[in-house]
Amino acid sequence: MSRTVRMPFPASRRQLAALGERLRLARKRRKISTVLMAERAGISRDTLHRAEKGDPAVSLGTFQQVLSVLRLDGDLDLLAGEDRLGRRL
Known about the structure:
The chain is mainly alpha-helical. It has a domain of 62 residues: Orthogonal Bundle (434 Repressor (Amino-terminal Domain)), CATH 1.10.260.40. The protein has 5 helices and no strands. The longest helix is centred in the first third of the chain and has 20 residues.
């Protein structure tokens, strides 16, 4: 059974593309090849390529694995950390 992935809004697509680009640049700054990165993250090179392109079908778990290899996984703790709207409600 195939998965259906809804296309995100344009602003969300831009955010995902920017995240993918930041991951790609972080990998390159560390001089890690795509083969080695995929191996360390436990994913295929194709999945890594899709993550670095900001593909919305890539799971959050995959992004977490890539961030972990880059030692940037602490950044996940910042997501949705400040819920100003929720606190006002």
